[in-house]
């Protein structure tokens, strides 16, 4: 059968309407956040939003984990603004993550720059901006902060944890390390281990920032300046990896920005103007140090690379939905297949789908009906289908260590 890419469609209904970002303190000197690095934080504030209503039994909560440059504003609009949240097309009444049924929580990441404690926050011990003195962070640390926010909201157990790209990595880590706190994990366009090419792209982006003369060894805020040139180049480079060749061809082709060529070294082709716009827009909402810290977390993420990675979730199984897109070359379907091999190798219930899409990695942010229908159906199946114990299946080995599987 010839490949038929899914078409983009319009969101269902009016969405969740006007929403407000709120803040919670989840670590203080009496309850510091112990980090994987061995350091700790005596103060952590988290920006978050919620949509829908928490049931009296508190059994309808869904946690949304955002991608690298996302934030807590996942759905609806803020007062006086028209731009919807970054995943508005999937969250809302009647939408795949139906807020008439689910109570949805979305928060900003530790180390971010949109209301959660990060390198641009003030270190309470010194009264100075953290800068590069902010400790190294890890995917586990993100999950620990998510769980502290859940406790703040009075939620002990989630019906599902859902994430795309880096958000999918958080969902995977959460399911492996705290399987008792969720029934289902939805992992979209994600990876359990970056390739050398993935790391290389991030490395070039970080170098563009660090080599900007306004980086000032990470103390640019104290110097009242920012390495904006480096950050915009990093964003332009990353954005190329978020779209497929088909998407670039369909959207821009070789069209000229001004109708006819202006041969020279400035912006001439429409795609150059687009990337330039992406780089400039990014400066209004993201911080260079947060970009460096968060990309580094992705580089080191390798949950199946340790002994007994699946032991906890085998003892307390989680249902998995893993979705990828056939033109995603940032995290190709091979990345998702590797996740599924590890899960199935441990006998865990995992559903895996590859969606035909022309839009590359960014497909996970778009309303593509086959994709959203899968998420909706997966969430609506009762959690009772969850098995008491993982079933033993054929072992697998894909070239890196996961001893529970390879030893069987």
**Lateral strand order in the biggest sheet:** 2-5-10-6-13-14-15-16
Task: Name the beta content range.
Answer: 15-25%
Q: Report the helical percentage.
A: 25-40%
Rough outline: globular
Largest sheet: 8 strands, mixed
What radius of gyration results from the CA coordinates?
21 Å
Task: Name its key features.
408 residues, alpha/beta, eight-stranded mixed β-sheet, two-stranded parallel ribbon, 11 helices, 16 strands, 30% helix, 16% strand, globular
Explained architecture:
The protein has helices at 139-152, 166-177, 196-210, 228-242, 245-251, 270-282, 288-300, 311-315, 333-345, 369-380, 403-406, and strands spanning 18-19, 22-27, 33-34, 40-41, 44-51, 61-65, 77-78, 91-92, 97-98, 103-107, 122-123, 128-129, 158-164, 182-188, 319-325, 350-355. The chain is α/β, with parallel strands linked by helices. The strands form five sheets. An eight-stranded mixed sheet has the order 2-5-10-6-13-14-15-16, sandwiched between helices. Helix 3 runs antiparallel to helix 4 (228-242). The longest helix has 15 residues, at 196-210. It is globular, with a radius of gyration of 21 Å. The relative contact order is 0.14.
């Amino acid at each position: 059968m010839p490949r038929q890419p899914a078409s983009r469609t319009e969101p269902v209904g009016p969405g969740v309407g006007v929403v407000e970002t709120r803040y919670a303190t989840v670590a203080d000197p009496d309850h510091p956040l112990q980090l994987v690095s061995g350091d700790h934080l005596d103060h952590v504030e988290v920006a978050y939003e919620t949509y829908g209503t928490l049931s009296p039994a508190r059994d309808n909560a869904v946690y949304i984990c955002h991608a690298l440059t996302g934030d807590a504003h996942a759905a609806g609009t803020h007062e006086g603004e028209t731009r919807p949240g970054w995943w508005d097309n999937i969250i809302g009444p009647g939408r795949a993550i139906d807020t008439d049924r689910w109570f949805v929580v979305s928060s900003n990441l530790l180390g971010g720059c949109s209301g959660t404690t990060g390198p641009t926050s003030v270190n309470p011990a010194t009264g100075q901006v953290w800068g590069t003195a902010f400790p190294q962070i890890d995917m586990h640390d993100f999950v620990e902060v998510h769980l502290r926010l859940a406790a703040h909201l009075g939620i002990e157990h989630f019906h599902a944890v859902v994430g795309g790209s880096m958000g999918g990595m958080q969902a995977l880590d959460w399911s492996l390390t705290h399987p008792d706190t969720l029934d289902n994990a939805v992992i979209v366009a994600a990876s359990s281990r970056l390739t050398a090419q993935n790391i290389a792209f991030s490395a070039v982006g970080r170098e563009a920032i660090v080599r900007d003369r306004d980086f000032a060894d990470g103390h640019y805020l104290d110097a009242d300046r920012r390495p904006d040139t480096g950050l915009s180049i990093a964003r332009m480079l990353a954005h190329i990896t978020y779209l497929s060749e088909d998407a670039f061809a369909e959207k821009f082709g070789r069209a000229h920005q001004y109708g006819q060529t202006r041969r020279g070294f400035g912006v001439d082709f429409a795609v150059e103007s687009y990337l330039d716009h992406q780089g400039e827009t990014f400066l209004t909402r993201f911080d260079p140090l947060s970009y460096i810290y968060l990309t580094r977390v992705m580089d080191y993420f390798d949950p199946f690379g340790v002994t007994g990675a699946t032991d906890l979730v085998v003892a307390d199984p989680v249902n998995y939905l893993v979705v990828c897109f056939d033109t995603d070359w940032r995290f190709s379907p091979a990345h998702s297949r590797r996740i599924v091999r590890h899960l199935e190798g441990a006998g865990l219930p995992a559903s895996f789908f590859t969606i035909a899409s022309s839009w590359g990695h960014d497909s996970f942010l778009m309303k593509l009906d086959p994709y959203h229908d899968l998420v909706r159906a997966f969430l609506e199946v009762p959690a009772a289908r969850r098995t008491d114990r993982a079933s033993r299946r054929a072992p697998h080995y894909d070239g890196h260590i996961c001893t529970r599987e390879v030893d069987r």
